[in-house]
Design a protein that fits this description.
Blueprint lengths: L1 E6 L4 E8 L10 E4 L2 H11 L7 E6 L6 H9 L4 E4 L1 H5 L2
Parallel strand pairs: 1-4, 4-5
Antiparallel strand pairs: 1-2, 2-3
Amino acid sequence: MKLVGIDIAKYRHAVYIMAAATGESLCDPFFFNNNENGFQKLYKELNKYAKDELLIGMEDTEHYYFAIESSLLAAGYTVALINPITTKNL
């Protein structure tokens, strides 16, 4: 299993991918724009792995996550929304 964490922001999101079992970093953290061109940058990295071995998590941050979440779900990825109160308490 690979874990993909997306830090949601208004214009530009950050992403990090790691192996769940070992915590090994699978890529350097990177940014992508909150638009179709930015999403393609994300997909280029995600396409290195089978969809069924990825779990993508992102914070339920107002409405800024809607576009990327919709795009990922339409593409067949598994997405978990995380309540911001939960992440604040970590």
